[in-house]
Amino acid sequence: AAVIIDGKAIADQIREEIGAEVAKMKEAVGNVPGLAVILVGARKDSATYVRMKKKACSEAGIQSFDVTLPEDATQDDVVAHVKHFNDNPAVHGILVQLPLPKHINEEAVLEAVSYEKDVDGFHPINVGTLAMQGRKPQFVSCTPKGCIELLKRSGVQMSGKRAVVLGRSNIVGTPAAMLLQRENATVTVVHSRTPNPAEITREADIVIAAIGKAELVRGDWFKPGAVVIDVGINAVEDSSRKTGYRLVGDVHFQEASQVASMITPVPGGVGPMTIAMLLSNTLEAAKRAYGVA
Ligand code: NAD
What we know:
There is one protein chain. By secondary structure, the protein is of the alpha/beta class. It has 2 domains: 30-114, Rossmann fold, CATH 3.40.50; 142-271, Rossmann fold, CATH 3.40.50. The protein has 10 helices and 11 strands. The chain has a 6-stranded parallel sheet with strand order 1-11-8-7-5-6, with helices on both faces. Strands 3-2-4 form a 3-stranded parallel sheet, with helices on both faces. Strand 9 and strand 10 (245-248) form a beta hairpin. Helix 2 (44-60) packs across helix 10 and helix 6 crosses helix 10. The longest helix has 23 residues, at 7-29. It binds nicotinamide-adenine-dinucleotide. Nicotinamide-adenine-dinucleotide is lined by residues 143, 166-169, 171-173, 190-192, 194, 197, 210-213, 216, 231-234, 270-271, 274.
């Protein structure tokens, strides 16, 4: 059976490391990193994510600044808050919680965030430089960065290996493929129009699944010994739970763990890494601002 990659434990370790670096920064320059979070509307899931991010910041000694705007806030209101944080030197990272209400153009808001404070890594300058050889983005999107960090900290060699990424979204699949390529893996991206996804996935030494379909990826999609990173978070009905549902990945965990050499669980795999990478990006931004190593 596959070794389970404990994303929660690895994320906790990283958060401790970040906390120690923040304390060192405070001693050296008298300042700590600052993260601004903008939430628009009252979606319960978004409010939960924002609360988790703020709690993680406070545990690491990172200062958080937050603004909650009503559902009917205008695009100009949101952009004005973004610009205000762009100009605030105590804020090193700015995060706009997505999705925004339908009447607001998400692209316009994300592009208003200074690319030097874009800790989510969604600004076109950061996405563009990630795709360019010889260039270094200021920030890489947290979830794919977390996937690579999990592979590194689990001792998985990427250089020279065959990798398959399932999904081509801007926030997960595409940057994950770029990052694997930067680690010198040979990368194939499989998506909704790929006619033979299982056949292609079976060639991979490393698989990152980011599709958003519960347990779509079955055990026979994997080459024996493959390393499997499952980004998917899908709720499926489960009447035996108090909540009435449980969370599963895009990969059929039980089948895959018979074939893979290493696998991430859902929950407790990639999820906790996303927040750890947000803190890491915020720390990096503050280090650049204060010129500390
Ligand atoms: P998305 O819907 O934006 O993109 C899904 C991608 O999957 C698309 O590129 C599509 O081409 C591809 N796809 C759809 N059906 C497919 C199929 N049958 N075969 C192959 N590819 C197919 O989703 P996303 O934002 O990239 O998120 C993917 C999953 O990851 C979701 O379950 C989401 O909840 C989860 N997620 C988790 C985290 C985290 O762990 N913190 C962060 C972001 C997303």
